[in-house]
Amino acid sequence: MTKAVTHLKTLSLVNLRRQPLPAVRRQQHIMAPACSRAARPFVNFYRRVFPSGWRRIVSTFRSFGNYGIAAGAITSGAAVAGGSVAAASAYGQHKLTPATISRVMLPDDANPGGFVHGGTILKMIDEAGWLAATRHANSNGRKEDSKSLSAALVRVEHMDFMERMLIGEVARVEASVIFTSSRSMEVRVEVWAENASKGSVRLTNQAILWYVAVPMDEETAAGHLKSQPVPPLPSNLQLRQEVHEAAKKRYDTQKAERARAHELPSDGTLKALQPDKTVEHSPAASQSSLLHVVLPSDCFANGIAQGGVIMKLMDTVAGLAAVRHSQNRLVVTASLDAIDFHSPVMNGNLVTVTSQVTHTSKRSMELKVVVFTENATTGEVKATNTAFFTFVNLSSLTGKVCDVPPLELTTDTERKAFAEGQARYEERKAARQKGKV
User: Fold this and answer.
1) What is the spatial distance between Cα 305 and Cα 138, in angstroms, rounded to a whole number?
2) Higher-confidence position of 125 and 52
3) Which of 206, 258, 323, 329 has the most neighbouring CB atoms within 10 Å?
4) Is the pTM of this model over 0.85?
5) 99 pairs with which residues across the strands?
């Protein structure tokens, strides 16, 4: 085996295909083998060079597919890949929008139970979705003198956490624009967990996000967002008819839901909720709040807070309320319902996130989360988000899902909220049984 690569270089698949095998052997580049005849020589190359580890190397990078080349170094027969990988290919006059980000999950990504914080995954999902949507919004087809555009998250569809991500695994998030209207983009995101030591890869999350394109100018930085037209998908990337119809149906559904009168709290009063332990296991006993000042590190270049940052705050305070109710620190996010972003959260805003338990089943808890933003300069307060998170309780001995304490209802308002939560619980249960995401 020749000397391991010490320099990293990225080549297009076309360039690699033009090189004779000996040159590729000398450079020892890690490529993303596509499932095609052209990729077979490179798969055979790995089989000859790494008889015991070629399957792990190929399977690790096969999932990058047509995204391009994953640059890395080969050491001791193992593939070491790190940082962020994001590539786009050119098709006609349009740029493809797939975006991939990946990084190792470290201890500072953990929740108190030692698993990867659900909010960390939500933040990475938004980062990948933003990148794919921004690429598409600025793809060819726009006038050369037009302003640069940045994507802004407006909605996240219901999402299940199918499997837990573990510390030490590599989280890879892949996003692609799969549908466009005149001013919005639907982005599909998948999250994969790779165990580098075992060579295994698991699908942990699938999500649908909606973005609009806003100009990167002073008005946007001041919080005055005006959506701009976005290019359609290239004709050679159009979806199959049945897939397109399903995407169009989702578009019409989310548009109708956003147009309805949403039950957002009054903007007049902003209070941080504190737990009231008068009645144990009551909704009031789980009340929790979190205050956060939005800093530049929380925002994209346009001054708008990342949707993933807000969702991580929501997941954090929901987890705190779940811990207070279950009196167990081992709680994990199971799912979240659709989240609409009604107003932008800007750099310098004070964000207050509140949560409490609204419904319990035998082994799950539903928590309502509300987000308020305050403009510290003008004093204006807005309720920007409302969402329902579902958490499950894990045994400290086995790590398996265990029972949660039933919710003690003391008021008519709490009973009404519980009945509404029961209806949502039945809907989620029926959706899971039908195999819907």
Assistant:
1) 20
2) 125
3) 323
4) no
5) 175
